[in-house]
Amino acid sequence: ILIRIDNSVLNRHHTGVVAGMSGSPVYIDGQLIGAIGYGWTGSQEPIGGVTPLPSMLADLPPTGGQTGARLDQPLQVAGRRYDQVTISPRPASVTAGTLNLTPVASLLQADGLGPEALRFLGDQLEPLGMQTLSVNGGGGQVARGIPALVPGSAVGIQLIDGDVDLASTGTLTWRQGDKVLAFGHSLAQLGRVRLPMSAATINTIHPSYDRSWKMATQLGLVGEINNDRFHAVAGRLHAPAQMIPATFAIAGAPPLRVKVAQHPVLTPGLLASAALETMATRVTDNEDTTARVTFKLKIEGREPITLTTMASGKDISKEVATDLSGLLAPLVNNPLEPVTLESLTTDIRLEPGRKTARVTRISTDKDRYRPGEVVKLEVELTPFDQAPRLEHFELPIPDDAGKGRAKLAVGGGSSQPTLLKAVGFTQPDPTSIASLLDYYQELPPSNALVAALGAGPDQLAVHGRPLPELPPAQLAWMSSLENSWLTSSHPAIHRSQPLDWVIEGSEAASIEILAAPSLSIEPLFEQKKSPAPAAKPKADNQLVGLPGGGYRISVNSFEDLRAGDLDGVGLDAHGSLEPGFAEAPLGAPVAEVATALISDGSTVDVGWTGGQVWAGDQRLETGAGMVTALLRQGEDLWVGTSPAAKLRRYRDGQLAQTIDLPATYVWGLCAAPEGGLLVACGRPGGLYSIKSDGRPRL
Length: 698
Fold this sequence. Notes:
Blueprint (H helix, E strand, L loop, with lengths): L1 E3 L3 H6 L11 E4 L2 E9 L7 E6 H5 L9 E11 L2 E8 L10 E6 L2 E6 L3 H11 L4 E5 L19 E9 L2 E12 L2 E4 L8 E16 L6 E16 L4 E5 L5 E8 L2 E9 L5 H14 L8 E11 L5 E9 L2 H17 L8 E12 L3 E9 L3 E2 L4 E10 L5 E8 L7 E9 L3 H7 L10 H10 L5 E6 L5 E4 L2 E3 L4 H8 L6 E4 L3 E6 L3 E3 L1 E8 L29 E3 L5 E3 L4 H6 L5 E3 L5 E3 L13 E6 L5 E5 L3 E4 L2 E4 L4 E8 L2 E7 L3 E6 L2 E7 L4 E7 L5 E6 L3 E5 L5 E2 L1
Parallel strand pairs: 6-7, 8-9, 16-20, 21-31, 22-32
Antiparallel strand pairs: 1-4, 2-3, 3-4, 3-7, 5-6, 8-11, 10-11, 10-13, 10-17, 11-12, 12-15, 13-14, 14-15, 16-17, 18-19, 18-20, 21-23, 23-24, 25-26, 25-32, 26-30, 27-28, 27-29, 33-34, 35-36, 37-38, 38-39, 39-40, 41-42, 42-43, 43-44, 45-46, 46-47, 47-48
């Protein structure tokens, strides 16, 4: 609905429709017809577009696109004649005689962000149609009473709260109980959301020929916006949305503390801009500086993850912010399951000067190798403003490596995915949040030197987690399975070592792997004919009564054993046969059984390749690739998971403790004679003792 607004404030300031007016209710003869939603850029005429109330009330309004309508009578505005009106989400090219209306801008007013952080945030939000504006000292929140919200009240969508304030302010159009409609257009057409809604007050109008805007102050949270659609934003009062508390600490300055709105598209950029602001107050763009950064992220239902990075040189603030955004975006936008961030803590340590080193040359001790040999790799690094130095790696070639050329690549930790791809490694897609988090935590920091060698046959991966150098028996068993969670990928042997420089550049080479020497194996015995079926052993003089009513039968040969009926018979590790379990299905299998434990003669604990544990009548979800070892110890169930070896202790079905082991696989668990646990690990092989402090000792 096209209207001309007769308003003393607009007339006094000679402005058109003002950013912040969106959502202002429009009445004809006392009847609400809709809300101001559209304006005309570059005009001082108060011509506006009204979003009809029925469109705002619709459950699913149409998505945005350019629409138009011819006018019954031409319209004269500022000396120009218009006979057609178009409405588009953004300013568009139109023919002469067409008036183009666009939504009144979703202007995000920022208080507490400097120019660099504001530019970074603007680059993140501009593709969504949101504009940012600095109002340092003029916005933010104030401690004053929150007025009753009625049509015409100022309301905001609060994206950042705390030491930084970022909000888009508009007007409440309609209220029914706790349900409200506002803005008369979308914030960014995000659909269903849970964004904080705040009460606001208007301080003044800032006139502009391009488009005027209202300077607003947020008064406090009053509810949540739960729908962001083309015609309006909808929300509910008294239902505060969850925000993410974040702290950014830097030595020599007070920490920056904020709360950030939870949304997969918005959150990464919002948190990254706060990180950039923290550094920008202490770092000069034209001066070499080194930053050592630690991110500690808490995800709902998961243990905290800690990631480190290092940046050095000029303009490193944006580099750290980009690292944080690059970490968060794939996590909160993953296609596997929703992720709720609970908190973020960032610790930044600054040092003067530049600490970078470039990879300038690599060489190997020879050109040709056989399977089982070790490639001795020499890497020349040239630190900034220093003489070159040498670093060394030893990369073992697998015994089953195939004949042919194999690629080598060396670079920094931040480029590890690129290096692995260069040598032919195919990273399996993660199939769970747990595997995605494991992938992040296994990434080396930017100050690590990484060497990768593409050699060996294809390796297996379970639920997206590679299973390198499996023992032959495990490899044969798993290769025989046909399941969607088990995939094959080209392997890469890679090693990393931390250094005191950010590693830049990369180098590549190749080596030749020769065929393995052929072996001739003579059979230990030759079976000339199939043995005749053995008769069942006679029971005379062979059944011996046992305490408690059991019996033991002496079996003198394997043929005797095979001739008997083994259903319901148990065989222990010492060769004794005792009454055992009769074969019966436990239920619908979720994967393949990887390990099983009979703890007390009546309970079977089963570990599955999908990472689940069936502990009696309980079902435990470890989030790991597969369960490879189990041990009952009193009231506790110890669960060993692989790859990325971990021990998990459960009590009464609840996770009580997690222990990280410096290995890839957990192959065995047993109680130690002197107390505690003994844990057998693989890759690298080792036996670890774990006492009450939970620290593994080799």
